[in-house]
Structures are given as structure tokens and as C-alpha cells.
Amino acid sequence: IAAAADAWARGAAALPKPWQPQKPVLPVEGMRNVLITSALPYVNNVPHLGNIIGCVLSADTFARYCRLRNWNTLYVCGTDEYGTATETKAVEEGLTPQEICDKYNAIHTDIYRWFDISFDCFGRTTTQSQTTIAQDIFQRLLARGFLLQDTVEQLRCEGCQRFLADRFVEGTCPFCNYEEARGDQCDKCGKLINAVELKSPQCKLCRGVPIVKPTHHLFLDLPKLEQQLEAWLEQSWATGDWTANARYITRSWIRDGLKPRCITRDLKWGTPVPLDGFRDKVFYVWFDAPIGYLSITANYTDQWERWWKNPQQ
């Protein structure tokens, strides 16, 4: 209180000069460097106030606060553009997935500009940087033995001649009986779902009843990471500021034991899988999308690793 009163008495002229970072904004030795991301909005809709309040506005407020504190701050975001939601929207509007992404990325960009959101970079995930970084992470996982191959039973619509991944199929949740569960998760109870577990499944495109067929996929070997993750979580829970909900959900996954998680899909729209036998598949959007934070930074600056691989600063 005494310090605040003293600063007030000395007036604005005595305040430190505002920090003007160079462009692009890069970490500076000896300064407090802050990298801020807000959740990547999905590209298949027009943002509304709830979307902005949910993540973008709070991150923007924090970014402005950090800049006022003269902290060297980079704030990045962008549209999440791969996955079945884009394909289903493209079918609805009679456009290609790329045209849908181009259309809605422009809408998102204009809306955030109108709200004066102070992004240093607002990008997108359908870029060459995304492909390069995602495939590099995949190759590192493969080389270190963190991937499995397995044949799985999947739903296939014979009328549409396609496997029904994720949002291409809807049915009743086997856990809570929610009638609009998707083929990868239930939005009501939050459980992860394999599409063949859905009760009364329907093809989202033609409303036909799918059949079950085998297909070969790649899995992230999460059980191999479980012990290391559990130790990290215990430390993070003790020292971090986790919400009660985040703690509860994470504990339930650990308590039930991590399961191998499929990271490939029988789709065309996505980051290609760079491995023989799987080159007709793409990465599952939840493997691909979080890498968007890195690739958007990489499109902003070719020195992106100074932000993402530089814990000392």
C-alpha cells in the first residue's frame, strides 16, 4: 500500500517507459517472457459472444495486463480446420473442405478484428508448417516406441462408401443414453467412445444404418506413459492452480487406467500419415489440433522454437 501511494504521488511521468518489443516478438534474455494461447476456435461456424467470452476475451485481457507490466508478451491463436466437422459442414454448404476453411477463417478474423482482440498472430492449422511439425512429432513417437498398430472394428456406411469417423456418425451414448453422442465422444457425459459402442448408430450424411467392418489403425501407447504422467501430475497438482473439474476428470482417467488411443482416421481431410500402409489415412484431429499452437507460431516466426523449446526463458 505504501509503495502504491508513493507511485501515485510521483505521478505518471515517473512510470517506466512502455516496452516496445521488436517484430516478430521473441524471448529476450533477462526479461519476463510470456507466451499466451487461447483455445483454437473450430472453423465451421460463425463465432458468437459465448465463444469469445469462453477463451479469447480472457486471454486477451491477460495479454493486455502483461504488456502493461512491461512483460515481453506473445499472444497467438487461430482456427482449428481439420476433422470431420469441416467435412460435414462442406457437404451441407456444397463446398470443398478447403473452401469452407477459407470462408470461415476470414469470418473469424474479421470478427476478432472488430472486437479489437490483441492477437500478435491469428493463424490456422491448414498450413505446411502444421504438416511438417505434426509429422515430425509422429516420427519421433514412432522412433521411441510410443505407437501401436491394430485392426479395429469400425462403422462403415455402404450407401456413402466411407468409414464413419467421429462426427460422421451419431447414436445413443452407451454410458448415459444421450441420443446425440458422436463417434468419438459424448458431449453430455464427457466419456470417450469407440463408434461401434454407440447404440442405434446412424450415418450423419444419409441417415443410413452402418455396418461393422475391420480397418487398420495407429494408436498412441498411453499406458507406456502412465507412470511418468502420474508422477508429473502429482507434482503439478501440488504446485499448480488446477480447477476442481480439471482435477476430477484427470484423476478419473488415471484411476481407470490409460488406454491406447487411436490417432488415425479413414478420411481425406487432415494431415497425411507419413508411414507405408497408412498413407491413405490422416491424423485424428485431437492428435493434430493441439500442434496448431506450435505451427501458428512457426508461421509467425521461423524462430518459433525459442518460444516452445526454451524453458529457461
UniProtKB/TrEMBL annotation:
<dbReference type="Pfam" id="PF09334">
    <property type="entry name" value="tRNA-synt_1g"/>
</dbReference>
<keyword id="KW-0648">Protein biosynthesis</keyword>
<dbReference type="GO" id="GO:0006431">
    <property type="term" value="P:methionyl-tRNA aminoacylation"/>
</dbReference>
<dbReference type="InterPro" id="IPR014758">
    <property type="entry name" value="Met-tRNA_synth"/>
</dbReference>
<comment type="similarity">
    <text>Belongs to the class-I aminoacyl-tRNA synthetase family.</text>
</comment>
<dbReference type="InterPro" id="IPR015413">
    <property type="entry name" value="Methionyl/Leucyl_tRNA_Synth"/>
</dbReference>
<dbReference type="GO" id="GO:0005829">
    <property type="term" value="C:cytosol"/>
</dbReference>
<feature type="domain" description="Methionyl/Leucyl tRNA synthetase">
    <location>
        <begin position="34"/>
        <end position="311"/>
    </location>
</feature>
<dbReference type="InterPro" id="IPR023458">
    <property type="entry name" value="Met-tRNA_ligase_1"/>
</dbReference>
<keyword id="KW-0547">Nucleotide-binding</keyword>
<dbReference type="InterPro" id="IPR001412">
    <property type="entry name" value="aa-tRNA-synth_I_CS"/>
</dbReference>
<dbReference type="GO" id="GO:0005524">
    <property type="term" value="F:ATP binding"/>
</dbReference>
<dbReference type="InterPro" id="IPR029038">
    <property type="entry name" value="MetRS_Zn"/>
</dbReference>
<keyword id="KW-0963">Cytoplasm</keyword>
<dbReference type="InterPro" id="IPR033911">
    <property type="entry name" value="MetRS_core"/>
</dbReference>
<keyword id="KW-0436">Ligase</keyword>
<keyword id="KW-0030">Aminoacyl-tRNA synthetase</keyword>
<protein>
    <recommendedName>
        <fullName>Methionine--tRNA ligase, cytoplasmic</fullName>
        <ecNumber>6.1.1.10</ecNumber>
    </recommendedName>
</protein>
<dbReference type="GO" id="GO:0004825">
    <property type="term" value="F:methionine-tRNA ligase activity"/>
</dbReference>
<keyword id="KW-0067">ATP-binding</keyword>
<dbReference type="GO" id="GO:0017101">
    <property type="term" value="C:aminoacyl-tRNA synthetase multienzyme complex"/>
</dbReference>
<dbReference type="InterPro" id="IPR014729">
    <property type="entry name" value="Rossmann-like_a/b/a_fold"/>
</dbReference>
